[in-house]
Each structure stands twice: as C-alpha cells, then as structure tokens.
Write a structure and sequence with these properties.
It is built from seven helices and two strands; from the N terminus they run ααααααββα. By secondary structure, it is mainly alpha-helical. A two-stranded antiparallel sheet has the order 1-2. α3 crosses α4. The longest helix has 27 residues.
Length: 173
C-alpha cells in the first residue's frame, strides 16, 4: 500500500507542477498581446507625472526579457552555468529608454513578441525538474524559473496597470 501511495503522489506532484508551469506560462504570454493592442496615440505619453512614456516601459520590459533569456533561461536549457547577475537598474533602465528612441512602435511590438516567445518556448521545453530546481546565478544567489515567472508576471501587471490608467485618462479627454 505504501508503494502505491508513493507512486500516486509522484504522479500527482508532476501533474501539479505541469499545471503550475502551464498557468504561469499562459499569464506570462499576456504582456505581448497587451502591447500589440495599444493605441498608437499613447506610445509617447508618460504613464504618470514624471514617469516614462509607454514606449520606454515596453522597451524596459523587452530588454529585461532579452537579458534573462540570454543569461538564465537559455543557459538552463543548454545545461550551462547561469551568467545572470545583479545589474545597476538605473543604467539598465536608461539604456532601455535610449533603445526605445531608436525603434518604431512596430519594431518594439515585434521585439516584445519575439523575446517573450523565445522565453516561453524554452521554458515549455524544459523538464519539470528544471522548472522546480533552484540554480545559482553568477553571483551565487538563488534563481528558480518558476520564481522568475512569478516575479515578472507581477512586473508586467504593475506596468500594465500604469498603462491602463493612462488609457483611461487619455480616452476621457
């Protein structure tokens, strides 16, 4: 009886992990859909007083996606050490704003979609073990794929709320 229970729990755990992975990936895929539906008239509008323009926010997220793909998600997929490390956020974000100036809205939308799709596909193909495993980043800090997804879903939602508030303000004028 104990052996049956252990096998059942293992199968049940795999199903729970797979469901969590699919749920997180589904939510993580929402950002590029949202970005693709933005009104072109708001791209250069700030999301609040003293805040970045929508295009800067989109660039900020797409460059974080690119960074985490290259430095964490891809190395995990290739069974290589993670090279992700703590960055100076102010410098990174300023670079994102400069990058935004060099791209059209359509280019930012396409890059947002491509970067997110690359991450989603890589994570989808990873084993449940890799999804659950806690890795060490280049500075010895813990990094887990599922925690990364949770954190960046929150990050996406934070910026989405800012943009949605702008859209409400903009549409009421």
């Amino acid at each position: 009886m104990a052996k049956y229970t252990e096998e059942y729990n293992l199968k049940g755990d795999k199903k729970v992990i797979d469901n969590e992975k699919q749920t997180l990936l589904k939510e993580f895929k929402q950002w590029p859909i949202f970005v693709g539906q933005l009104d072109p008239a708001i791209w250069d509008k700030p999301v609040g007083e003293g805040k970045w323009a929508v295009r800067d926010v989109v660039s900020h997220i797409l460059l974080w996606d690119q960074y985490f793909y290259e430095e964490a998600i891809k190395p995990i997929s290739e069974d290589q050490p993670l090279t992700v490390r703590h960055l100076d956020f102010d410098t990174f974000n300023q670079n994102a704003r400069e990058f935004a100036k060099s791209k059209t809205d359509d280019e930012l939308i396409n890059l947002t979609r491509a970067n997110r799709e690359q991450i989603v596909n890589a994570i989808r193909e990873q084993s449940d073990e890799n999804f659950e495993k806690v890795y060490q980043d280049a500075e010895g800090h813990p990094f887990a794929v599922k925690n990364y997804l949770r954190d960046f879903i929150w990050h996406d939602q934070h910026h989405r709320k800012q943009i949605e508030a702008l859209m409400l303000t903009f549409s009421s004028k």
